[in-house]
Structure formats: C-alpha cells, structure tokens
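Hi W.,

Here's what went into the run:
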Amino acid sequence: MAKITFILHNGVEQTVDGIPGMSVMEAAVKNMVPGIDADCGGACACATCHVYLQPEWQDKVGKRAAMEEDMLDFAFDVQDSSRLSCQIKISDAINGLRVRVPAKQF
Amino acid sequence: MSDEIKTDAVIIGAGPCGLFAIFELGLLDIKCHVIDILDRAGGQCAELYPEKPIYDIPALPIVTGAELTGRLMEQAKPFHPQYHFNQMVTELVKHGDNDFELKTDGGLVFRSKIVVIAAGGGSFQPKKPPIPGIDAYEGTSVFYSIKKMEAFRGRDILIVGGGDSALDWVNNLTPIAGSMTLLHRRDEFRAAPDSVNKMRELVAQGKMQLKLGQVTGLTGEGGNLQSVQVKGNDGAAYEIKANTLLPFFGLTMKLGPVANWGLNLDQNVIPVDTEKFETSTPGIFAIGDINHYPGKLKLILSGFHEAALLAQQAFRYINPGERLLFQYTTSSSSLQKKLGVN
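Here's what came out:
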C-alpha cells in the first residue's frame, strides 16, 4: 500500500490508499477524489486527470513520456510539475506522494 | 414540414453500442437513422482511442478502436443505416405512442417510432479553457469551433493549441485573416507533420507569427476582445493584440441536451430496466455507457447484449400483436436473406 495525498483546489487534502501497480488516476477515481475526471479511463487520450507534483516529489516520480507530453497540450495551465495521473504508476517508492489537483479539468 | 425524415428508429450515438443496435434492430426489419455529434462513427473508440488496443471484445483478443468501429459498420451495412454526422440532437419530444420527434442543431427533423439513446458519456464538445472572464467573449470574439470561414475574414486572430484542429485552422485562415498568431505551450506540435511544416513556412514568409506560452487573461470591452495576456515559457508576461481568439484544446464529454428530455436521470446516467433497457419513457431506450441498472458494467460487450434485448421490445412496439419468432443467424434462411448471405 502507498499513501497518496491529493490537495484539492480549495486546499482540502484527501489521502487515499494506492495499490502498487495501479495508477494514481485509478486510486483517485476509486476514492472519488473530486477534480480528476479521467474521461478516457486511463488510455492517455484525454488530459482530464491533470495534476501538479509537489516540488519535493518531482524528481522521485520521474519524467513524463512523449505521449503524455503530447497529451498535455490539451490541458490548461501546464507547468513543469504537470503530470497526467493515469501515467504515474503507484509503487512503494512513491509512498506519501503529494499532488495538487487543478480547480477544473475543463 | 416536407423535409421531415420518417423512420422506424433513431439511434443517438454512433459508438460501438449504437452501431450494433443497427444490426440487432435490422434483423427484426427495423430501419435506423443514426445521429452523431462527431464527424465519423466510433464514438469514444474514434475520438479517444482509435489506435489503442481493446482486449475484452469476445473472440477478438486484440482490436483497436478504429478496427472495431470499421467491423461494426461492416456488420450493420446490410441494413442500410443512414448516418447523420456533425449533428447534435437538441430536442426529443414524444407526441404519442410510436411517435417521437427529434431535432438536431444542424436543422434536421426526424419522426420516429422508437428512439435508442446510445450516447456514451454524452456529447463530445470542445473544451473551454478556464481563462477568467472568457464567458463574456464567447460567440462574439471567442469561438471553439468554426462553421463559416468567411466570418473570420480580416480579423486579427489568435489560435491557441498544438493539435490538428489548431494547425489546420491556422493554415486555412491565415490567407483571409487580418493577422494571425499561433500560441502554443512548446515548440513541438502533436499535429500532422505536414500541417506543422506548412505553418512554419507561413511563419518564414512573414504571413503569421508563432509565439510560445500560455494564456492567462483577456482584455476587451462589451464582448469585443482587444488583447490576450500571455505568460511566456521563460515566465515573462506579454500581450498579443487580437480581436478573435480560437482555443483548440480537444474535446470533452458533456451530458448535453439529454438532460432536457424529461427522462429520469441518476447522476448523469439514465436508469433502465434489464429486460428491455427502456427508460422512464416507453419507446425510448438507453444502452451502453449512458444507462444504469443494478450490476451495470461500462463494457462494450454489455452494450451489445443490451442492444439485442431492446430490439425485442422495439419490435413489439412497431409491430403490435405480431408474434416475434426467435431465430439464429446460423440456421434461419430468412435472417440470412436479410444479411444478404443467402
């Protein structure tokens, strides 16, 4: 189990249990974290599971792949810390991960 | 109303479940018109994952969204479905038993005996970037889709995005625009290489500008845009003069007009029974991702089953009092005749 904390746009924090192998998006949807729409169900095809990594996690989580970089063109307010949460695989190494959820996936 | 289209069934949504419903209804001699907001069949399979493999279609260990769509269309072909693309059903009114009227945003009017809602997650609509105050400019200076190019002649246009829509419209509108600027968050584009090359050529010829950055705000008056504030990739803020903004951030699914048709809804899905997959309005059925019942799984294969069962009830509505004979395509010569294989 890995703990993942979603910091919602209004500052409220929601911590969920993530099963290694699942994606951060799946953990969010399973626990009904608001602000993660995941229209395409995890195919890296819609950019509606956009999150921002908290600074201390940016190096640990790793870089986005080319497909994800392309898909981020369809997200709003993309920053260096931007990731699509369906492309972050949960493992013990990211236990305690903190990500910020945008106000809207639009 | 001479151009009203009369038909047995209207299917709303040309995704996999809507396409298979053509087949199941067709076996029972029910003719279908199919309406979809996209410019082609396939629904989510076409828009979200045309190239991505699906592994849970019975008997197809691996198939892409595009292949599945193609095969379903081929399977439905003997029944001569009529497709109406780029149309969103805006109104659905029941006039009486076996009498429904549907209208689309493209001005089509249908009169149908039954209706099948196979609309998936709703209608695909352009994403509207959450730029503060953007609502005030929509329809006057901000447009998410283009119906008539001429409306943009002489305008100072800013297009935002890096996909095919953004690049296609940059290339098409530059010759008639007053000025053209393309804004994208990086100097790489996911659009087809051809259109990217064409755009770079236009930049080299001085016919348009390419800027990097992201929109942060809009300035204007009375719905008329004057300039767009941008945060550059180096963090520095700058401004682009434009009276027209065209943001192209892809499509998202919204429930859309379905919510206004007087059907019972439960958290954006339509409750149905599991015998006929009928909604709270007799004669209107709902199949696929848009329906809900105890134990519902949003799988394509569930939608196929739902299509087969709804067709039985649709037959009873359209042919009251007539006995419905259950037959297999393998052995029934009458079904094989309909399929054109016998």
